[in-house]
Amino acid sequence: MARKHGKTGMEAYLDKILQPEVLFTLFAAYILGRMTAGRRARDNGLSPTPPTPKEIKAALDRVTMSKWLEIDAELDARKKIRAIKLLRNATGLGLKDSKHAIEERERKRDLRLH
């Protein structure tokens, strides 16, 4: 069966895209994208560098006495999650470090109360 109108739209598109200069440009764009995507993944990973113990101590030292009283009140009311949130907001520490700091504060307060 012979065609009356020449190439179909898809055939014309494939002829155009399969030209060497177009293939080279697409390949170069792909390689460049892969190279920069790998760098972005390393530079902007989901997990930031964890703070050092010295940085954690400095953040905890900046918490005001009134904020500690508010945190202690939440601990007394057995609202540990609320206490952790208050500490995170006051220090900018992550969840894990804030949780450890609150648990350490609970241990110290329990020793003082006994």
Automatic annotation (TrEMBL):
Pfam families: Ribosomal_L12. One of its GO terms (molecular function) is structural constituent of ribosome. Residues 77-104 form the Large ribosomal subunit protein bL12 C-terminal domain. This is Large ribosomal subunit protein bL12 C-terminal domain-containing protein. It comes from Hyphomonas adhaerens MHS-3. It comes from the Bacteria. GO terms for biological process: translation.
